Amino acid sequence: MQLINRKNVLIVHAHPERTSVTHQLSDIASEVLKAQGHEVLHSDLYGMGWKAVFDDQDFPQRVNQDRLSFIEESGNAFSNGWQTPDVVEEQRKILAANAVILIFPLWWYSMPAIMKGWVDRVWAFGLAYGYRGAGNTYRYGEGGFAGKRALLGVSVGGSAQDYSPRGINGPLEQLLFPITHGTLFFPGMQVLPTFAVYGTAGLEAKGMAEATMAWRSRVERLFEDEPIAFRSQNGGDYPDRHVLADHVAPNQTGLTAHIADVS
Amino acid sequence: MQLINRKNVLIVHAHPERTSVTHQLSDIASEVLKAQGHEVLHSDLYGMGWKAVFDDQDFPQRVNQDRLSFIEESGNAFSNGWQTPDVVEEQRKILAANAVILIFPLWWYSMPAIMKGWVDRVWAFGLAYGYRGAGNTYRYGEGGFAGKRALLGVSVGGSAQDYSPRGINGPLEQLLFPITHGTLFFPGMQVLPTFAVYGTAGLEAKGMAEATMAWRSRVERLFEDEPIAFRSQNGGDYPDRHVLADHVAPNQTGLTAHIADVS
User: What is the CATH number of the domain that holds B91?
Assistant: First the structure.
């Protein structure tokens, strides 16, 4: 037991079927982390009956009864203690965690709605964006979730080939950029390269055994692996906080220009 | 009235506030299309109380009671007439439509959960994927929604600069690739370039008036504008249906390699 390095890890997962690859990845992660002496928290979104839709019920005490602005009401609810208990509890878990692992089946190249609704509702103004009431001062590498690690574990129906650099679906890591960069790195998390199990629609015992070994190894190195080298907003690459400096990734455009070691 | 060119258009939108930019874009689109003599169908997801979460309640008659496989149950529910009435109704609207317009606020670089859940639940196996029970034979340009056009109208809180080719968020069209390419082109729709209103967090009357004019013009040309030149799976660029042929976009990788006119 490495009590001195004991960390808290939150595992958020989204599949209702107990035998799904998603549940298996969640169970394996939990087992590996506990064996390392870490504390594991769970958010089983289907099991919890998580409310996916972000709506006026999220704001029992509105500052503006006439017009619903999510940004305004989210900021006020967060700073005045008016958030709903389910949202408060998820924020408490994230804030207590040194790392967050999101495990989900890839549905239409993104998260299932229930997990998207977890982000929509829990990523409050003042915490995950508009941090410290300072607009976009702190984002992409700094913010309310700074100092935490994040890792996606994704169950993918299609083949690895379809997600390869020239595969027809597009590379998985680029399809997930709105999540890794835009959702997790934005409020300050350090995001590890995505772990994927491919071909889950027809996965047999051998394939699952190989995936299990690979996943165990990735979870074991959760606090050691190098994060994706996303460029931080305030590290010098974006002098105006909006656009890459001319000398950074010169002549490159698009998503990969925001990763330091991709050319 | 151009009755001879009368088309059906489905507008799907996702914001609960009647005065939101999303609702305004929806109202404008409806007005323009009706003035052109078209028939307009609406799916106001918040207004309808759309069930966002895809779960076992979507399958009142299961083929496998022991283990929930979404692909298997979706395919069986679709082909055997066991889908829930709300899903059947949305599919009916899409199938009746010559074009589908999705209007939403960009939340964490993607759709709100309620709209993601509309896709998750309505894009059935046998219709939007696994078309004709033929695996991946028909996808990316062919499939259950072939011959229809699609257009995204997106309300974006941040500035256009942040979404510019070297902007810190990444280019909007690349962030939306999982939706335009992976969700709409996949089952066969021809997808137009995305329309965005930026800076909606602080949009004043002048900005909204300009956005309104631009949007009117885009909706007027819904059936005339050139779609994004996504490469079709069966058009010759993917000889094995999985990976780009060597001579196509040689040496390019990533999302933009799948667009014919982007170099």
Answer: 3.40.50.360
